[in-house]
Amino acid sequence: MDLQALKTQEHKRRVKIGFMWAFFCAILWGLWYIPGTVVWVLNPFDAMYGEIAATSGDGVSLIVTAVLITAFNALTVILALLVWNGVLGKFGEMKRTLKEFHPCSRWFFLAAIFGGPMAILGSFIAMGFVGGAFAAVAALMYPVVGSTLASKWYGEKITKRAYTGIAFIIAGGFTIFGGGVLTEIGSGSVSWIGYLGGLMAAAGWGIEGAIAGKGLDISEPDVSLTIRFIAENIIWWIIIIPLLAIVGFPMFKYAILAFEPLTLLTLIFAGITFGFCYVAWYKSFPLIGVGRGQGIGNLYGLFAVIFIFLFFGDVPSWTILVGGTLCLAGSSIMFLEDTGELESLRGD
Amino acid sequence: MVQTEAAMEAYNAYWANAPLPSAGVLYMVLILIIAILALWQARTFISKF
Prior knowledge:
Number of helices of chain B: 2
Largest sheet of chain A: none
Number of domains of chain A: 1
Shape of chain A: globular
Strand content of chain B: under 5%
Radius of gyration of chain A: 20 Å
Oligomer: heterodimer
Shape of chain B: elongated
Number of strands of chain A: 0
Low-confidence stretches of chain A: none
Structural class of chain B: mainly alpha
Order of helices and strands of chain A: HHHHHHHHHHHHHHH
Number of domains of chain B: 1
Largest sheet of chain B: none
Order of helices and strands of chain B: HH
Low-confidence stretches of chain B: none
Helix content of chain A: over 70%
């Protein structure tokens, strides 16, 4: 076998592995919705929601409770990522990357700001002020932001075929959640802040992906993602939660009460799915590019519906089947793309 | 904070209509299987590249 054939074979293998990581991300992200949903009915979050809703209203209560749940989620993600990095023997690399703040870590601190408070909080604002289906559709738009930014900023090559695949997956997402969105918007009492939340979610995750793509040029994904979540924990636990406590919300009281076996177990499983899905997302970027990684990752909408049916028994409607078919068509369009097109992920 | 009866009722209601048996435990088993699979693939990836 000559050198060129070996190079092509190696490249094909890398692309396949990139798509595999993006699929892992979609499956684990879809699975996250199971612990991510049930944790809301468990104490102390249920009691916290009730107490804040009684004085500040349902919308504010949802966001403040979501902040505490998200902060605990970020904490359990770190535990999951420590296991991940421990098994892969990456602690030395982590120390080295953390020390190199200017060239490496700063990108992931920046990614944490966009992916954490901006995207996650935006998603919860959309959920609280418009509805869950709208929040899901808004989040599905993030590959448009991510791929456009990656293309304009550092010239990531997005082929027409990749754009078509992303468009199919987004159309599939719209079909899956479209009925719910129309009902929610049609209710007439939607606040503009809900739409702003949707925009924050799409822009936040898209920008995070593009920034991560840049940072991953000079650092490796397992360690980078852990640093990104260390930064997110700092944002939640050292800045936002104390600020909310100063404003008068009972943040620390309920944070301490969260140390209950069933609540902790549920949070740990949320942390495993979220942490591992995120690390798979980051691992796919250097191999297939931000646009494709985010596009395939968007299949989480379809997987969430499948897992919600399997574990909660919510039977999907026909629109979900049509949407699911569109999502599968979109991912196939990208997956079956000639790998020669991906030999260089950048436009040079 | 101990779970109240209402909280446990709401928690159990999620799994009540699931087509899979013991869905409340099974989802954790599935997460562990996929997580171990992902870790194994990550280790394989390191050894190959």
